[in-house]
Design goal:
The protein has 302 residues and is an alpha/beta fold. The protein has two domains: 151 residues, no CATH class; 128 residues, 2-Layer Sandwich (Nucleotidyltransferase, domain 5), CATH 3.30.420. Helices cover 42% and strands 12% of the residues. It has a five-stranded mixed beta sheet, with helices on both faces. A hairpin with an 8-residue loop joins β1 and β2. α3 packs across α9, α4 packs across α5 and α5 crosses α9. The two termini are 33 Å apart. Bound molecules: zinc ion. Zinc ion (ZN) binds next to loops.
């Protein structure tokens, strides 16, 4: 274990200060990427206890590597400290993110750089959102917006304390809602062994799954939380001035909304920051590359 190399900051103030120390940032990133010691990104050979933040050398294939090699941050011209400051900024946002705010925080002049970084940060948000709902989970669908597109928001949300609060939220946008789609969503969004509460109407009537207990309840008592969440989403979307056009990916918007809804579950900002850094350093650049290629990028990753 190399935990002794660098510790998690004990306060927000300490964390914000450390992020201007390049060597601390490098050691912190190494601890989160290789907690048991360096693992070669080329040949996957593990080196128990071997820690080297500057160009670690693989004893198996002889190649030198870097903290960001093969990760989401692969090939970036900016330092790891700059990336950590971007993730620290992200961990402190409570309602929305934007390229303008990111540029202001990091002092970037280029819109292209801000655009490329925001794509990666949104990808990280999406990965953090993948945590499943568990326990007693409300599942329902409501209209996505006031337009005539007909999309539905298929929603699952943990029911923590009736009348007080809800827990983790997952939402999927769907143009066609049937039981096959609902089952696929529940497998992704709800932990096996949980209990889901669905309404008795079409297309939920008669819905069942092997790995999840399904209970039918039509009372408004159980579904007002979903109605309230969808109203919050529509308001949030209006505030972001997104219009109902094909230019915006509705699922991206919904994912961002879910991230900020779930963000309040993290009472400790430093813990959320560490989660974001772990995602950035433990996801492959290849997973992300197709996303970049699909978009008409005004410029490359800086
Ligand atoms: Zn190797």
């Amino acid at each position: 274990m190399i935990d002794s190399l660098v510790h998690t900051p004990k306060s927000e103030a300490e964390c914000a200060l450390r992020l201007y120390d390049e060597s601390w940032c490098a050691a912190y990133a190494v601890r989160l990427r290789w907690p048991q010691g360096f693992v070669c990104p080329v040949c996957a050979a593990s080196h128990q206890g071997y820690v080297q933040s500057e160009k670690p050398l693989c004893r198996a294939c002889g190649r030198s590597s870097s903290i960001t090699a093969g990760t989401l941050l692969h090939g970036s011209k900016k330092s790891i400290a700059t990336w950590l400051r971007a993730l620290w900024w992200l961990s402190g946002e409570h309602t929305s993110v934007s390229i303008a705010k990111l540029k202001h925080h990091l002092g970037f002049r280029s819109y292209q750089t801000g655009w490329a970084w925001m794509k990666k940060l949104r990808f990280i948000l999406h990965q953090v959102n993948r945590t499943q709902c568990r326990g007693i989970v409300l599942v329902d669908a409501v209209a996505a917006d006031d337009c005539d597109k007909g999309d539905q928001l298929l929603t699952s949300v943990e029911s923590i304390a009736r009348g007080r609060s809800t827990g983790r939220l997952r939402i999927k946008v769907s143009a066609v809602l049937n039981q096959e789609f609902i089952a696929q969503f529940c497998r992704q969004a709800v932990t096996p062994g949980s209990i889901i509460i669905v309404p008795g109407r079409t297309p939920f009537d008669g819905f069942h799954m092997q790995e999840i207990v399904c209970t039918v309840d039509d009372s408004i008592f159980h579904h007002e939380d979903v109605l309230r969440i969808s109203a919050c989403y529509r308001l949030w979307r209006r505030q972001k001035k997104f219009r109902c056009t094909a230019q915006h990916n509705d699922q991206d918007l919904v994912d961002e909304f879910c991230y900020f809804y779930n963000r309040s579950l993290y009472t400790d900002r430093v813990h959320l920051f560490e989660t974001l850094v772990s995602v950035a350093l433990n996801h492959s650049h290849d997973d992300f590359r197709s996303l970049i290629e699909q978009s008409a990028a005004p410029g490359g990753v800086q």
